[in-house]
Amino acid sequence: MATNTYKEPVKQASKIETKRKQVNFFRFLEGYLSLGGVFEQGLPIRYIPHILFLTFLGIIYIGNIHYAEKNVRKMTRLKKEVDDLRADYTTTQSEYMQASKQSDVATKVSKFGLVESSTPPYKIIVKKEK
After folding, report:
1. Which Pfam families is this protein grouped with (predicted)?
2. What is the pLDDT of residues 68-102, one digit of tens each?
């Protein structure tokens, strides 16, 4: 058979602990919202779809933020690559323009024994027969 026991006296909290309890955010929130009457017997079943919907929206929101940040990083990387390619294009184009000058071509082909013509070109006219 069980024996009777006495309740032990409750220890009084120190001043630091009482100040900490007074400043607690969740105590303030509990007092402000006064949800004690709603949750006396646990979480009502009728709120579960709303909670799940809000959770789903939160997950979608977080996923959207991660997706946007990934796209920003990708855009930055591609912008840097485009700038590098534009610089390469400009350099290559200027080298090509320099190399295609008549004087540069003449000096390059002189190694093969070709010389620049000193006579101007003339037009060949062919008469059509009827």
Report:
1. FtsL_2
2. 999 999 999 999 999 999 999 999 999 999 988 98
Token output for 35: 């949800």
User: For 73, left (φ over 0), alpha (ψ -120 to 50), or beta?
Assistant: alpha
Taking CA 17 as the corner, what is the angle to CA 13 and CA 21, rounded to the nearest 5 degrees? 115
Q: Is 27 within 8 Å of 21 (Cβ atoms)?
A: yes
Nearest CA to 12 out of 4, 21, 2, 3 is that of 21
Taking each helix axis as running N to C, give the angle between helix 15-23 and helix 25-33, from 0 to 180 degrees, rounded to the nearest 10: 50
Say if CB 29 and CB 35 are below 8 A apart: no
